Structure to design on (571 residues):
């Protein structure tokens, strides 16, 4: 790290300079560095995603990718801050939930920045970052959030003083379903975007297991059944179409149920799968019928990125929330209910 | 169905409930409206099959000796069920002490449902009514027929999850009383298997530390 970060004015005190935080993301396939000002403006967002030609992501290989990319991306961010005359006041890092080997690369990078420039280290929960960066673009400020990505499928709302998962997948995430199926169809990783594209080429609906239990969903039945059909040589486009229609209908129905009993007036869509136009349009349609607002995270902030980590850092910053470097362990299984959310406390 | 609607009882996420005239009295018409966001083929299948299934569950539950609204008519084509109008307060409106006093009854009825292969599927406090001192179970819209351990446990898990969140003060005692009667109703051996599974399900969500600790015996001390 030492060799790529040239000494400069990054952390020098100056009243003329705007203050900003760096955010580092490395929970899964993406290593990202973002910059966000203390008045919550996202200024810089660069990332590199580990892509395979075949097969899924191996945590160790992804971590190697992150380690290779970290110095370059960090330097880019620091150079940007330098040329924009921004003063570094903190470094936030996604310590979890995620893949241990990947998380460690982000943590090491962030610790180095913290020690080198003498700025506080802010531990950020990756899921909270996805939810908050989407809430930045919400209408009511208090939505039911559908968080859908390669690793997560959760319906989350804010209750009293914390985020609470009201519905979630009982087995695999929706992104995982799409990715694994895409891989079986011969696409590499990430295959979900290609599967979503292929789905548009058909309107032939094949019945698949539709499994919703209360507000929870289960996707493993769809995957097993689809694999069986695939091995029998079913038309891939029809299968892709049916998988997308079935799984997204389940999600929309689960969100609708959470809306019904929570009384919230908005749905916010976030995470990598939020880029899907079909999912957006289904939720939007459901919301319109219920007289409920709908908002979706912008595409460049939908997938894993460093900007959202920096952004949540800027929310925490006024509350002096930080962690000593020697205690900054990664937290691969960090449940969202455990996260302190001072900026949404009514008594603050 | 040629029925005259008098009032709207509720607009749920799943269906609308209308109060209709029925031979001079009142009945409830439950209609599953099309979901426009859903693929029409899928939508018709889901609404039709859930309607028929719900009607079958209602009639089976009634015969099993569980208080449910009496089934009057069903239309698969219109995704509609006509049933008795049961007036009462939901358990959600009940104070902690009264709720605790009904724990045994609720347990007995769940035992009876499960012993007869009926899974309620949406065991929330708003789906159990108190009508003149007796409990009525409504809304089998997400139910299914099954003698499966998993289905039974998932059914109970939903009720317990809600109680834990909304009535933490009486949760332990409620479950204890519930469990006793449930066991009586379904048999001790079957009953303990179901409760073991309920415990397992609680550990199944994502990022649950206890599961890791239980399985791997490793110490995770970061929280």
């Amino acid at each position: 790290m030492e060799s790529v970060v040239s000494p400069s004015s990054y952390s020098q005190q100056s009243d003329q300079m705007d203050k900003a935080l760096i955010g580092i993301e490395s929970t899964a396939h993406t290593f990202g560095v973002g910059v966000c000002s203390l008045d919550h403006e996202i200024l810089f967002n660069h990332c590199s995603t580990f892509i395979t030609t075949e097969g899924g992501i191996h945590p160790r290989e992804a971590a190697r990718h992150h380690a290779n990319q970290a110095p370059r991306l960090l330097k880019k961010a620091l150079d940007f801050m330098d040329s924009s005359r921004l003063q570094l006041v903190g470094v936030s890092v996604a310590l979890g939930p995620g893949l241990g080997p990947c998380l460690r690369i982000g943590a090491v990078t962030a610790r180095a920045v913290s020690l080198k420039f003498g700025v506080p280290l802010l531990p950020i929960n990756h899921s909270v970052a996805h939810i908050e960066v989407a809430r930045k673009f919400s209408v009511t400020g208090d939505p039911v959030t559908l968080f859908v990505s390669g690793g997560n499928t959760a319906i989350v709302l804010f209750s009293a003083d914390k985020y609470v998962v009201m519905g979630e997948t009982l087995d695999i995430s929706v992104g995982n379903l799409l990715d694994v199926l895409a891989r079986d169809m011969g696409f590499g990783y990430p295959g979900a975007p290609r599967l979503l594209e292929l789905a548009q080429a058909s309107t032939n609906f094949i019945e698949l297991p539709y499994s919703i239990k209360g507000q929870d969903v289960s996707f493993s039945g769809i995957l097993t059944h689809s694999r069986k059909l695939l091995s029998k040589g079913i038309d891939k486009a029809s299968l892709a179409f049916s998988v997308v229609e079935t799984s997204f209908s389940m999600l929309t129905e689960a969100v609708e149920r959470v809306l019904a009993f929570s009384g919230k007036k908005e749905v916010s869509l976030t995470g990598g799968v939020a880029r899907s136009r079909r999912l957006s349009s289904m939720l939007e349609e459901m919301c319109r019928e219920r007289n409920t607002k709908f908002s979706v995270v912008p595409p460049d902030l939908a997938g894993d990125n460093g900007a959202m980590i920096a952004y949540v850092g800027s929310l925490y910053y006024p509350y002096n929330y930080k962690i000593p470097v020697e205690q900054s362990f990664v937290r691969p299984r960090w449940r969202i209910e455990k996260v302190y959310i001072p900026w949404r406390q009514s008594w603050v | 169905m040629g029925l005259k609607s008098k009032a709207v009882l509720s607009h749920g996420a799943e269906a609308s409930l209308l109060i209709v005239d029925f031979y001079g009295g009142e009945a409830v018409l439950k209609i599953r409206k099309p979901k426009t966001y859903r693929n029409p083929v899928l939508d018709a299948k889901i609404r039709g099959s859930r309607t028929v299934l719900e009607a079958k569950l209602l009639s089976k539950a009634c015969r099993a000796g569980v208080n449910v609204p009496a089934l009057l008519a069903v239309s698969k084509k219109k995704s509609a069920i006509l049933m008795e109008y049961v007036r009462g307060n939901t358990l959600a409106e009940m104070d902690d002490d009264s709720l605790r006093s009904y724990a045994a009854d609720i347990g007995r009825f769940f035992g009876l449902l499960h012993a007869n292969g009926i899974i309620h599927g949406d065991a929330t406090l708003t789906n159990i009514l108190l009508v003149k001192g007796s409990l009525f179970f409504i809304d089998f819209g997400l139910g299914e027929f099954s003698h499966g351990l998993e289905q039974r446990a998932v059914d109970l898990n939903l009720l317990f999850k809600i109680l834990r969140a909304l009535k933490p003060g009486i949760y332990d005692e409620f479950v204890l009383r519930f469990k006793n009667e449930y066991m009586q109703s379904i048999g001790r051996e079957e009953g303990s298997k179901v409760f073991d599974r309920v415990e397992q399900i609680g550990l199944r969500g994502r990022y649950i530390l206890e599961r890791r600790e239980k399985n791997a015996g490793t110490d995770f001390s970061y929280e």
About this structure: Residues 288 and 294 of chain A are 8 Å apart (CA to CA). The radius of gyration of chain A is 20 Å. The first helix of chain A runs from residue 59 to 83.
